[in-house]
Specification:
The protein is about 40% helix and about 25% strand. It is an alpha+beta fold. The strands form 3 sheets. It has a 16-stranded mixed sheet that branches. Helix 2 packs across helix 4 and helix 13 packs antiparallel against helix 19. The termini are far apart.
Amino acid sequence: MRKPTLVLALLLLALLGAVAATSLLVPVPEVRESSSRSEFNIARARERLARILGDERPHPADSLANDAVRERLLAEMRGVGLSPQVRDQTACNEGYKLRGVTCARVRNVVATIGPPNGRHLLLNAHYDSSVAGPGAGDDGAGVATLLEVASILRSEPLRRPIAFLFNEGEELGLIGARAFLADPLSRNVDRLINLEARGTTGPVNMFETSVPNGVAVEAFAHAVDRPVANSLATDVYRQMPNYTDVNSFAERGWLTLNFAMIGNETRYHSPGDDLAALDPRSLQHMGDQTLAVARELSGRLPSAKSDRIFMDVFGRWLVHMPQAVGWVLVAASLVGLAWLAWRRKAFGRGLAVIAGGLLLGTALAWAGTAVVGLARPGMFWRAYPLWTHLAVYASALVAAIAVLASLGRTLNVRQLRAVCWLAFAVIGAIVAIAAPLGIIFFLFPPLVFGLGVIASRWHARGEQVGARLAALTLYLTLGAMVGQLEELLNQGPMWLFAPLGLIVMMPVLVEAKPLIAATHPRNAIGIASLFALLGWAAAAAAPAYSDDRQQQFTIEHVTDIGTGRSSWSVLNDLAALPDGFRAAGKWQLDKLPYSDRKRWLASAQPVQGLKPPAIQVIDRAATGSVRKVRLRLQTNGAETVAFVAPKDARIAAAGTGAFVRPISRQAKEGRYVVRCFGRSCDGLRIDIVIGKAAPVDFILLGSRSGLPPSAKSLVAARPKLARPQYSPDATITMGRLRL
C-alpha cells in the first residue's frame, strides 16, 4: 500500500473513531466520597430510595403499590426532619401536545422549610411510577435527590421558604402538578426546580428553562460546577412530543430550571428501570446540581431579562451570552464568509460540493439502514448502536469523498475552506429559524477560521492553523451535541446522523483534499466504501438486544365486546415474532381500531366472565352546537377506562368537578382520548364537552394489568432479552358508545 493511501486510511479511521466517540465529550462526574453534612451524599440518597421502592414493583398513581410507597416516603420525610402533609384530590389534566384529558385520584405530599413567610422556591419530583416499571430513575432519582437536599438545607439559614412537592400522577398526564395549582400554597411560589428522567444513566442535563431564560441561565451558570446544558436542546425540546410537570406549571410564569438524565432510554418505563440500573454517578450529578441551584435560587438573582444563548464545554464550563450578540456574530460570519467565497471564485460550485455531500451522504446512510432493516426488521441497533453509527458515518464519508473528487476536483483547499465554513454558517442560520437559541453552536468555529484568515496576512500558515483549530472547535462543541442526540434519538431514524456527522467531519475532509488527490480519488472512495461495508456488516451481525438493552415487547389480550372476537396483540419494534408464538395461530401486522400503531395480531379465545366498563349518562345539556354530557363510570374491575373519539369529533374539554380541562391547543392532530386511571374511577362522574351537534361514536376501553391463563405459553415464549416497555402486559376490552 502506498504511503498516501495508508495515511488516508488511518486519517479516515481516526475521523470515524472521533465522531463515534462524541458521547465521551460530556463525561458523567464521578461519585464523590463526602462525610460533610453540607454536601450531597450519594450513599444516604440511595439508601433512602431503596427503602422507598421496597420490592421495586410498579406503583402507578391510585394503586395499592403506590399507597405503600407513599407511606414509606412519609416515613423518610419525617426521618430527615420534615413535616409532610398529604393533599388528597381527584383531578384531571390535559394531555400536552396530545388530544386528551386524563383523570385520577392523586395524593400530593408537600413540606416546607425556611422562613414562615415570603415567596417560595418549589422543588418538585413525582413519586408514582409508570404502569410498566419500578421507576428508580423516573422519578425515584428525583425523589431521593429532594430528600437529601431537604435534609441539608433545613439546617442552613434560608432567605426564603422552600417547598418540596412529591407529586402523584405525573405519569398519567401531569395530574399531580395540575392538582397542586389548585393548592393555596402554589400561589406563594415564584421559582421552580423540576427533576425528571428519561433513562437511568448519563450526565444530568438542564434541558428546559422559563421564557425568557436570562435570569435562569445566569443563576444556573453561577451556581453549578459541572453544567451540562445548551440552548439548542432547550429549543428543540419545545418541538418534541415529550412533556413534564413544567408544562402545567408554565402557566404561572415561575422562574424555572428543569433537569433530567437521558442515558439508556431502553430501560425507561420498563421493568429495567430498577435501582440496580440507576448509575450512582448520575444521581450524584443530579444531587450536586439541585443543591447548588436551590441555594442560588433561594437568594437574590441577577436582573437579566432577555434570552441568552448558552452551551457547556466538556461539562465543566457554561459559555453564555445575550441572544442579540449571537445574531450579530452570525450575521458577521455570513457576510464575511460569503465575501471570501465570492472573492475566491468558489461560491456556486463550492456550495454545490457541500450540499451534494450532505444529500448523497444522507441517501447512502438511508440505503444502508434500509438494506440491513430488510434482513433484520426491528431496532437491530438497540443493543450496540455504536456499530450502526459507525456505518452511517462511514457512508457519509463515502459521499463526501466522492463529491470532493468530482464536483470539487477543480477547487483548491483555500476555496473549499471558504465555502465549507460559509455553508456551516448558513446551516446555523437555517437552524435558527426553528430553534433561534441554537445559534450558539454555529458561532465560534467560523470565527476561529476568520481569525486565521486575518492572521494569514502576517503569517503564511495562519489560515491553515485557523482552519484546523476551527475544525477542532466544531468537534468539541457541535460534536458533543451530536453525541447527546445519539442517546436522545436512540429509536431512530439512524440515517439522520449522516448529515449531522458530516457537518462535523467535512472541515477535516477539506483539509485532507490534497491527500485524497495523492491517493487517487478512486482509491480514496474505495477505502471509505470498505469502512462503510465493514460497518454495515458489523451492524447486521451484532446482536439486536442484550441484557441491558432489551427489546420492547408487550403482550395484550384484546376483546371486542360488540363482535365477541378476541385477539392477541404484541407491541414490539416490528421484528418477527419467535417460533414459540406460532402455536397461537397466524400472526399479521395490523392496527386496532383505537390506535394508529402497527402491531402483531392473532386470534385468541375469549376470557370467560370478563366484564367491560359500564357507562351511565346522567345529564345532557346543549348551547347551540356545543353539548355537555355527564357520565358515571362503572369500571367492573378495569384499572383504566378510556373514551377514544375519532379525529373529527371536536372534543373541546373533559374532566370532573373543578378540573374540566380544555383540549390542548398545541395538539392539532390525532384521535381524542379521555381516560380515568385507578381504583377511584369506579363511580366517578366525568363531563365531556363536544363542539358539534352530531353524535360522536366513541370506542370504550377497559384495561387491566396482567394476562389471562391462556397467555401462559406466549409469556413463556417471549424472547429472553425482551420486556414490556411503556405499557404492561394487559387484558383489554373494547366496546362502543354513541354520545
